[in-house]
C-alpha cells in the first residue's frame, strides 16, 4: 500500500477531458492528503436540513469573478472523469469541470453530494445526501478527487461504486466548519480521529 501511494504521488494528473483506462497511476495525490479520507464531516451537521450550506455569502457575480465551480445554493453537476481502485473496498473518483476554474473549497470545508433514491408518496424524486471532503489540492483547476470507502449498506457509497466515466454527480457547497486566515493564531494543534479533526488554537 505504501509503495502504491508513493507511485500515485509521483504520477501526473489526468488531463481535463481525457478519457483513459482506470488505473492506479492516473491520479496525482499528495501523501498527506490520504489522511483526509472522504465522507468526513458529521452526519448531524446537515441532517437537520438537506439544503444547509455555509459560506461567506458568495454571490453569483463573485463566483464568476473568482472563477469558482461550486455554487453555494445550487446543485451543480460534475462529470466523473476516471476512477482508480485503492483497496478492495476503497476507490478514488476524479470529477472534472471547466479547466479555468477552481472548485472553491477551503481547507476544513466539505461538499454535499446527492443522488436520486426512489420516489415519495407524491411520486416526486427522493434523494440521498452525503457530505464528502475532496482530497485534491484546493488550488487545483478543472478537477477534484474523492476517496470513498464503499459500504455494503451505504446508499451513497454504493451509488458512487455504480458510476462509470462520463456519469454525473450533483454537488453543492462549500460547507465551512472553520475558515482559517494567515497569521490568525500563533500556534495550531491538530488531533485527527476517524473522520473528525479537532483544532486547538493559541
Q: What is the subunit organization of this protein?
A: single chain
Strand proportion: 25-35%
Q: What is the CATH fold-level name?
A: Elongation Factor Tu (Ef-tu), domain 3
Number of strand segments: 8
Structural class: alpha+beta
Strand order of the largest sheet: 4-3-6-1-2-5
Write down the overall mean pLDDT: 74
The end-to-end distance, rounded to whole angstroms, is: 36 Å
Could you describe the largest sheet, including whether it forms a barrel?
6 strands, antiparallel
Describe the global form: globular
The number of domains: 1
User: Can you tell me the CATH architecture?
Assistant: Beta Barrel
Helix proportion: 10-25%
Write a structural description.
The protein has 202 residues and is an alpha+beta fold. It has one domain (33-201): Elongation Factor Tu (Ef-tu), domain 3 (Beta Barrel), CATH 2.40.30. It has 4 helices and 8 strands; from the N terminus they run αααβββββαβββ. The longest helix is centred in the N-terminal third of the chain and has 9 residues, at 2-10. This is cytochrome-b5 reductase. Pfam families: FAD_binding_6 (PF00970). Its cofactor is FAD.
Question: What keyword list fits this structure?
Answer:
cytochrome-b5 reductase, mitochondrion, six-stranded antiparallel beta sheet, 4 helices, FAD-bd_FR_type, 202 residues, single chain, 32% strand, cytochrome-b5 reductase activity, acting on NADH, Elongation Factor Tu (Ef-tu), domain 3, 14% helix, Riboflavin_synthase-like_b-brl, alpha+beta, two-stranded antiparallel sheet
